[in-house]
Amino acid sequence: MSLSYAMKESLAGFKRAKLSAIISIVTITISLLLLGIFAVVTIHTSRFIDTLRNKVEMEAFLQEPLSRQELATLKKRVAAIDGVKEIVYVSKEEAAKIFKDEFGEDISNVLDFNPLPASFKIFLNEGHKTASKAHNVNKRLLSLKGIESIKYRKELLELIDTRTATVHNLTLSLGLFISLSAIFLVSNTIRLAIYAKRQLIRTMELVGATPGFIRYPFLLEGIMQGFLGGIIATCILFLLLEYATPLLSVQFSEFIHMEPLFYLIVIIAGVFLGLVGSLISVARFIGIVTRS
Amino acid sequence: MITLSNVTMTFGNHPVLDDIFLQIKPGEFVFLVGQTGAGKSTLLRLMYMDILPTEGIVSVGKYSSSNIEKREKPYLRRTLGIVFQDYRLMEDRNVFDNVAFTLHVTGEKSKHIKKKVLHALGDIGLAHQRNKMAHELSGGEQQRVVIARALVNSPLFLLADEPTGNLDPGTSHEILQLLRDINTRGTAVIMATHNYDLVRRTNERIVQVKNGKVYDVVMK
Hints:
heterodimer, A: alpha+beta, Alpha-Beta Plaits, 4 strands, B: alpha/beta, Rossmann fold, 2 domains, six-stranded mixed β-sheet, four-stranded antiparallel β-sheet, 7 helices, 32% helix, 28% strand, globular
């Protein structure tokens, strides 16, 4: 079958059964809205968790005194540890300045000497901002000569890890559930629309149409419905995120932001839903007609 | 050639055809007569392999029920033209598109489709009605369109299942005459009917389906 004929047939199918086409598009739109909102929530939960993780840094306090040479060697060794992204050296004087900035009092006025040790502020790579990985880095740091002690927010990382696992499992299950429901819903809606054309399919079979010939226009129709559903869902999601969220809360709306790629994915998901929905329905349906 | 050898067809526990032999040669005109439920439609469905025999072999040209694959059935049906009592026109398209569909199925080039469809519609006297939707036509006209659809592919055999079943006597005779005209041009016609008036005083072959058997009969 030529593509142009299949396109013509699917467009005609669209026009001939406007109501069922509209119902299919609405079903796809609703499914995509559910999936889209779910994706927005999941992405922002993940972003929030990342923001928390990014706040985690390690502070390695150095033994005293260390010569320039020893300090340089130690810095190199710390940098060689797997997971270390960046090291910032904080001298005793800088530590005292930070103290003053934070507490408003000069430490040398309180004590006769500066008790604050020099330290390395250590930033970890993305994949190493978990409790177990940070623990490994911690152990390696402590094994280095010249490091007195380490301070990092171990409990916070453990809490994030536990919560992340829960959120991850929950979103995975929910995502799978919504996706399967969407496919089920869309395929059933399209199936009903195709079922209404059972006599037509039967006639097609009897005049010698191959299953492929019968199938292609329905699949193309499904793709077109999915594309339109995707466009509508994208517009609604865009309006919701860009214009409706500021009405709820300005701070909240500043945090909520989706890249253009997200909207493209929604449209592609629509096409996918339309295609899979019609593929399942037509495959089942041609079988039913043949058996009857 | 269509041959049914030792064919038995049973639906569940209900035997419809019992060890029959029937052969139809190219160019023949055959009436299949019998009461409603005698098995005429079953015979035709066996010929276009909508159903396969419980026992025995149906062969249509190079295709045999003993080894036909599902993907081959559309190609078998393209060698046949099928006409139904209830027309089965595609309600969602006009007369021209209904007839053209058969050619699209076979992958005929667009430039040939228009010519062939108009020719087929001309043969049945409905070229002027080509833009009408199926439901805008009378029963007789709809049946003519179905015949055009069945013929446009130049099939070797035309299988007509009660083509006059829904028509008044006058229109029935017109349809029968049309089928005869088609037959004189070389297409074999197998027409199932329970209307004995139609086959009275005919010179064509008559096969009666009765009690699961088939008999060649001569009408007096």
